[in-house]
Specification:
The chain has two domains: about 240 residues, Rossmann fold (3-Layer(aba) Sandwich), CATH 3.40.50.300; about 240 residues, Rossmann fold, CATH 3.40.50. Helix 9 packs across helix 19. Helices cover about 35% and strands about 25% of the residues. With about 500 residues, the protein is α/β, with parallel strands linked by helices. A six-stranded mixed β-sheet has the order 6-9-10-3-11-12, with helices on both faces.
């Protein structure tokens, strides 16, 4: 019997279409898996069901009746609970308070009933007591817990809603094997009692261990649903890729460089928060791509190379000489540049003129204490022109520019005095297609001039159409290297989704 049905659901944020056509049928007593690449629309679909996002079009049926999920409280009233991929815990509150937050027990309708609160929380803590660790107690402050324990608390919080429909958006990402196994035992028990579960995971072994059916979303559209027992991991990946299994767009592939004997950057056994035992080399004139699902260590290792976070072990060499990078300032002095896709946090200097935004690295490298604006403008304009940056004047505020032109300013600041190594951390996030085309045209030009480039992108097409080699990250380490004819969308997905 169909418990929940979504038909033709869509959602746009301005010009960005997050979900073009989302269809989903969830039966009673079923674990229904949603799978798709980064940005395919899975989380948006789940947030629509949970009431945290309002759809622009489409229909939601609950027990055959059309409903409007106007917000999280409305979803709760309709019997829908959700585990969010971005944890929604209150760090300064106790485990018990977080677990029962959706429905805190009260005395006389006013004060929290602490005895009932603790008893209720301990019921859910007991479900995981063999795998949670001694520190996870009802009175423990959530901010004092490990990442895996925090994730367990978020799961308990979803379970505590006792909702007939439960949505879990990547609930196992921080859990160890024993914790995942226990969680799956709980899900199977809930399923046997008729509860309906939507489960998002990027781990193919988990999908086949817990799912009854799987629905694939590709580029914002539901492309198909199949029974888990009647399919295979290979078939699911083919559904995710579609007909186009080579390059993600029909344009010609970039020229494949022969491996350079002139190594610009060499990384050996680098280990730190979010990555372990990562080794690779980048030749001069080469674009090395870092692929895989979001959050598998790609950004973390780029930040470590730039000195923003300290690795625990390993070695980095630049042109054969060992690098000692303990800060971004040190990295800049030794010839490294870093561009983040999060320009609001790591890029633009808000409220300041374009000239001040484009020249700070030049001032730092050349130890300029005082400089004439005219002289700085002479240095900045060629770099801005190379990126086709559109601006009225260098004295105008950075905030007067579009997102794409702001990102061009951030990139241009590194090109006034060219670095030896360019680290690009998802640099096209939130910019339009025209700006992306300008950026990648320049990246290929810089590589042709001999610059070594390491590019992480959450968009498969950007890697497949621009990188000479791709290192696919899975679980914080490199699971596969793709070069030449191996650089296909299928191989990229297969390496990213195989069991870590």
């Amino acid at each position: 019997m169909t418990k929940l049905k979504l038909s033709g659901v869509s959602k746009a944020y301005g010009a960005t279409l997050a979900l073009r056509r989302g269809d989903l049928e969830l039966d009673s007593g079923e674990v229904h898996v949603l799978i798709g690449a980064n940005g395919s629309g899975k989380s948006t679909l789940c947030k629509i069901v949970a009431g945290s996002v309002r759809p622009d079009a489409g229909e939601v049926l609950l027990d055959g009746r059309a409903v409007t999920v106007s917000g999280p409280r409305a979803a709760q009233a309709l019997g829908i609970g959700i585990f969010y991929q971005e944890l929604s815990l209150a760090d300064h509150r106790s485990v018990a308070e977080n677990i029962c937050l959706p429905d805190l027990p009260r005395q006389n309708g006013l004060f929290i009933d602490r005895t009932a609160l603790r008893a209720e929380a301990e019921r859910y803590i007991a479900l995981f007591e063999t795998v949670a660790g001694a520190a996870l107690q009802a009175d423990t402050i959530v901010g004092d817990l490990r990442a895996d324990q925090r994730q367990l608390v978020e799961i308990m919080k979803a379970l505590a809603t006792e909702a007939p429909i439960l949505i879990f958006d990547e609930p196992t990402s921080a859990l160890d094997r024993a914790q995942v196994d226990r969680f799956f035992e709980i899900l199977r028990d809930l399923k046997s009692k008729g509860r309906s579960i939507v489960f998002i995971s990027h781990r193919m072994d988990e999908i086949f261990a817990i799912g009854d059916r799987v629905t694939v979303i590709r580029d914002g559209e539901t492309v198909g649903t199949t029974t888990i027992s009647e399919t295979s991991p290979d078939a699911v990946i083919h559904m995710m890729v579609g007909e186009q299994e080579t390059l993600a767009t029909p344009q010609a592939a970039p020229p494949i460089h022969a491996p350079s004997t002139d190594i610009a950057l060499k990384v050996e056994g680098l280990t730190g928060a979010g990555f372990h035992e990562v080794s690779f080399a980048v030749g001069r004139g080469e674009i090395l791509g870092l692929g895989g699902l979001h959050g598998q260590g790609q950004s973390a290792i780029l930040k470590a190379l730039f000195g923003a976070v300290a690795p625990r072990s390993g070695e980095v060499k630049l042109a054969g000489e060992r690098l000692r990078i303990d800060s971004p300032r040190s990295a800049i002095a030794q010839g490294l540049a870093y561009v983040s896709g999060d320009r609001g946090r790591d890029g633009v200097i808000s409220g300041r003129p374009i000239l001040e935004n484009v020249t700070p690295i030049h001032a730092l490298r050349n130890r300029l204490l005082l400089a004439r604006p005219g002289r700085l403008a002479e240095k900045a304009l060629p770099a801005l022109k190379a990126l086709n940056t559109k601006f009225a004047g260098l004295s105008h505020s950075i905030g007067s520019l579009s997102g794409g032109n702001q990102q061009k300013i951030v990139i241009a600041r590194w090109l006034i005095d060219k670095p030896d190594i360019l680290l690009l951390d998802d640099p096209t996030k939130g910019i339009d297609l025209s700006a992306k085309a300008d950026l990648f045209a320049l990246i290929r030009e810089l590589a042709a001039e001999g610059l070594a480039i390491v590019l992480y992108s959450s968009e498969d097409a950007e890697l497949l159409n621009n990188a000479d080699r791709i290192l696919v990250f899975n679980g914080g380490s490199v699971s596969r290297e793709l070069s030449g004819a191996e650089r296909t969308r299928y191989n990229l997905y297969q390496a990213a989704y195989e069991a870590a």
